[in-house]
Amino acid sequence: MKHAIKRNTNAKHLECLQCETIYPIDDYFEGCPACQKKEKPSNVTMIYSNYKKCMLPYDHYISMGEGCTPLLTVDLNEGPLYLKYEGQNPTGSHKDRMSALIVTRAIEKGYRGVAVASSGNAGLSFAAYCAYSGLDCIVISTRELNKNIQSYIKYYGARLILTETAMQRWEQLKQLTKEGFYPGSNYANPPIGTVHFGVQGYKCIAYEIVSQLQGSIPTKIIVPTSRGDLLAGIWQGFKEMEMNSLPKMIAVEPFARITAVLKGEAYTNSFAGKTVLKSIAGSTVTYQAVSAVRQSRGEAIVVSGEEALEAQRQLMKKGIFLEVSSASVVSAYQKLRRRRAIDKDDLVVAIGTSSGFIEI
Ligand SMILES: [Zn+2]
Prior knowledge:
CATH architecture of the largest domain: 3-Layer(aba) Sandwich
Strand content: 15-25%
Low-confidence stretches: none
Number of domains: 3
Distance between the termini: 38 Å
Radius of gyration: 19 Å
Bound molecules: zinc ion
Mean pLDDT: 96
């Protein structure tokens, strides 16, 4: 067999993040059935019998060497910032951690391929991982998708479908799921995050950070956020480590979405706003994102496209090239320093989700 797949026998069952209902291990593409019925959709998460290391659904899965990314130190005027550089992953973004597990799950269940609605990074990642593992791949994006990324996705052998609007991508994906493709992203509206098998992959970022800080626990983690897979996955990882303290999770967004929910709006609402920060765009919020911010007593912070671009250039002067949506974390850090929401005693890690070279 080309790819050895072995389930983790410590995986016990699934639990809804919102209503805490327990379910047997399965896919639940639209999240917790009980919450879905109440039109309050929520992701489920996997529960294990022990957490001696970063527990994943599989002991052996299809890997292209994702993870174990460097923790860089960026010396800004405001003080040092740790940057977890996810651009080092095989296709240049954090999405590879998720693709590895979802592609493995699709093969285990005998799916013909994976289909994904993406603004770029997830599409590239799934196209590569499907090609590596011999699965078909369909990437659904909008016509605004960078022309070079369009070419790369096709070179990996994936089929590319371009829609007029971002919401139309989800309709297409829902249809492809009915036709036998495993969904590599959400397709429901109001949305949940990506299927839990994928989100699990992000937990290891928490373990890696603590190990790279030689056992120190950060006080704040800054994460570029759209549907919150990364935010929720890292938060889950920190909780599972059962350490003495937990970091506050800070969600960076291009306009007020989580910010509005924290002030009282329903997370199932639609939030209007335009942005050039494509990787964190979109008009929706998920329960998992709000829950990670609330549980950790963190916050959401808005960063504009101009501010992120400025931060991207500042980072390049330090030798680091992040995608502009990712560079928003540096701008968020600077704003929080100025507001004294971060002080000199804080140990702050920002997640640099993807390489700037993707956008060229
Ligand atoms: Zn539920």
